[in-house]
Recover the amino acids of this structure.
């Protein structure tokens, strides 16, 4: 019994192979250099302004209640979910470049970011996070003591007389 049936009009081996490879790579949560694995997280830009950093993330189709922005111990975490169109089954996709599902970005914050004054707004599919910067601290001189010269311990009180 033949496994492959060449020449039939209903079967396009390259299209099916491409779809199978795409589904296989989509099921693996690793990215490989040079392969066509879609980015599973949104692209961001970070701009340095006069007194703050401005982070902009493109989140087309996202809803504000599906986004979570947290900061802890110098790390900014942005978490969300991309929803696909309702009523379209997974096997109906012929090409999928827009990721679906849960994604998360974790970005270390530079020094002097005032975490308690950070703010975020979401408008027309664009998330803007403002990261205000504090004033630079002045360098402080720390005295270096000579640890090699130890003072002789004081004699016990009974020998001191």
């Amino acid at each position: 019994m033949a496994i492959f049936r060449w020449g039939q009009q209903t079967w396009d081996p390259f299209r099916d192979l491409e779809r199978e490879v795409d589904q296989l790579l989509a099921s693996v949560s690793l990215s490989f250099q040079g392969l066509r694995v879609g980015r599973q997280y949104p692209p961001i830009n970070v701009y340095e302004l006069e007194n703050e950093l401005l982070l902009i993330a493109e989140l087309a189709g996202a809803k504000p209640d599906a986004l979570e922005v947290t900061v802890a111990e110098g790390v900014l975490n942005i978490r969300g979910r991309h929803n696909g169109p309702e009523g379209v089954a997974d096997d109906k996709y012929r090409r999928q470049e827009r990721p679906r599902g849960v994604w998360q970005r974790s970005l270390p914050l530079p020094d002097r970011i005032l975490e308690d004054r950070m703010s975020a707004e979401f408008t027309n599919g664009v998330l803007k996070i403002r990261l205000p910067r504090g004033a630079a601290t002045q360098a402080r001189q720390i005295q270096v003591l000579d640890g090699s010269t130890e003072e002789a311990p004081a004699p016990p009180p009974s020998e001191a007389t």
User: Anything to note?
Assistant: Residues 51 and 137 are 15 Å apart (CA to CA). The two ends are 112 Å apart (CA to CA). The longest helix spans residues 13-27.
